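Researcher: Here's my situation. A collaborator sent me these components and asked whether they could plausibly form a single complex. I don't have experimental data yet, so a predicted model of the whole assembly would be a useful starting point for our discussion.
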Amino acid sequence: MTDTAHAAGPVRRLAGILHRRPRLQLSLLLSAPLAWLVLAYLGSLTVLFLSAFWTTDAFTSNVVKVWNTDNFTALFTTDVYRQVALRSVGVALAVTVLCVLIAFPIAFYTARIAQPRWRPLLVVAILTPLWASYLVKAYAWRLILAQGGLLDWLLGPLGIKGPGYGLTATVLVLTYLWLPYMVLPIHAGLEQLPANLLDASADLGARTGRTFRAVVLPMVLPSVAAGSVFTFSLSLGDYIAVQIVGGKTQLIGNLIYSNITLDLPLAAALGTVPVVIIVLYLLAVRRTGALSSL
Amino acid sequence: MEGMAIRLQNLRKTFGRTEAVAGVELEIADGEFFSMLGPSGSGKTTVLRMIAGFEAPTSGTVELAGSDVTRLAPFERDVHTVFQDYALFPHMTVEQNVAYGLKVRKVPKPERLKQAREALASVRLADFGTRRPSQLSGGQRQRVALARALVGRPKVLLLDEPLGALDLKLREQMQVELKAIQREVGITFVFVTHDQEEALTMSDRIAVFNQGRVEQVGTPAQIYERPATPFVAGFVGTSNLLTDDAAEQVVGDRATYSIRPEKIRVLKESALADEPRHSRATGTVAEVVYLGDATRFLVDLDAGGRLTALQQNLETSSEDVAAFRGSRVTLQWHQRHNFRVPGTR
C-alpha cells in the first residue's frame, strides 16, 4: 500500500502538477468547450452578421463581396418584411402564452396532486412526445386539421368547423410541439415549492386563490420564464411546421429559408432579426431572475 | 365550556395503515402555555396540524373557543402557526411577510404597515423590515415567523418545534423571550417539542405523547416528580428506575420505582450516618461524568441495576471526581423521593 502511494508514475505526477496549479487545470478543462463555443457558435454568428452586408448579383445569384447596408435598409423599409417579423413575434408570443396556460394545470397535477410514486412516470409521459419525430407529429396534425379531417369531424356535431390550414393552425401545432418544454420547468418549480409555504399562507387567512396569486405564482414565475425561453425561441425559429399546416402563412423562418439559395446576404440580414429579438427577450427574462436558477 | 381555548375529543388520524394519533383527549385553557412533549413520531405534530386545520382528523372533533372547527379550512380558524422551519415567503421582504395576514384580511395599508412595524419592534427586528428572509440568521428568521404569527392577534398560537434549528445559547435566550411574549400578549400558546427541558422550563402544563396517545397531562412539577407511566418516568428527566429484585432489596417493595438523580447523595461506603426514613444502596462507581457545574455518577448496585446520581460540584474539582471511578460507594436518599411508577408491579 505504502509503495503505491510513493511510486510516482507519470499519470500520478501529472495529477500532482495539476492539483498544485488550479488555473492550469481549469484552462485545460475549459479549452475544448470554449473553442467550440467561440469557433463554431460565435464564429458562425459573426459570419452571418458580416455576410448580411454583402450583396448578390441579381442576374447570376452569386454573392458579391461588396460592403453596403442595402439588405438592412430593405429590411426596415419593406412592408412585407416588417409584417412577417411582427407576425412571427406574435406567433411566438401566442404559443408561449398558450403553453403557459396549458402547462400550469398539468404541472400542478404532476408536481403536487398526483401520488408521489406516480410522478416520475407522469414526467416520462409528458416527455414521450419528444421522442417522436418532429415531422411525424407535424404531418399528423396536417391530417387532423385537414378539411373533413379529424377535427372537423369532432367539431361537426357542435356546428363548428376546424380552423383549417393557416395562422391558427400554426399556433396550435407549435403549442403542441413545444408544450413539454414548458411543462418540465414549471413541474420542477412547483415540486420545489415548499408545502409549508402553502400551509403558512392558508394559516394566515388566505383562501386558495389568494395563495395561488400571492405565493405560488411569484415563486414559480422564474420557472415559467425559463420555459418561455424555449417555447418563444423555438417558435420564432420554426419554418417547417408552418410549411406543413400554415397554408400561405409566412413566418420569418420561411423568408430566411427561401432566400438562402436566392439571396444569401438578404437571408443573413433576415437571420439577424430573430437573433436580436431573442437577445432582447433573454434580457427581459433575466430581470425575472429565471436565468440565475437555470 | 367557558375559558377553554381548545378542546380535542377522541381525536384520531391514520395515514394508510399507521395510526399517527390514536384517540387524543385534551383541554387547553385560555391564556395557557401548553406544551406537547414526546419523541419524534409520537403524534404531537399531527395533533398540532389538526388544530391548525392542515390535516383533517380521521375521527373525533376539534373545538376552538367552544365551537366545532373540525371541518373548517385553516383560513377559517382563528389560529396562527409558527412553523418548524419558519416557512417565511422568500419572495417577500420581512415587512411584507409580517403584514401578509393583515393584507389578506384587507386591513388598510397604513394601518397594516404600522402593526407590522410594531410587531417587528416587539421581536427586536425593527430595522430589518426591508430585508429578505434569506438575508437573516436563523434566530432572526425565527423571530420574524413569530412576529408574523402574532401580528393578527390570534386566539391561539401554535408553535411546531420553533426552536429546534437554533443553537443552544440562542435557544435558551428564545425560551425566555417566548415566555415573556406569551405573558405579555396573553394568547394561548400550544408548543410542540421533543426537548423535555424546554417543555419543563416554559410550560404551564405539559402533555406527554407516546405512540399517538397522551400518557400524562400535568404541570412540569407533576410530570417530573410524579410520572404517571413508566414511559413518562423514562422520557422526562434521566431514566433512573429500580425494578424487581433491586426494588425489593432497596425499597422493600417489588415494583418499579423512579428516583431522580439529583435527590441521591453519594457517600463513602464506610459512611454509617444511618439517617431515619432514608433508602440506602451500596455499589461500585462504573462511570463518572464531569459536567462542569455538577458531576454525574453511574453506580452499579450490589442489589442489581444501575442508578445515576447527580452531585453539585460544591467543593470538588474534575480531578477529585475522576478518582471515584471504580470505588465503592453508598447511595442515600430520602424515602419520599421513592416514586412508585403507576401501572407497574
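Model: Some features of this prediction you could bring to your collaborator: DSSP finds 14 helices and two strands in chain A. Residues 108 and 190 of chain A are 7 Å apart (CA to CA).
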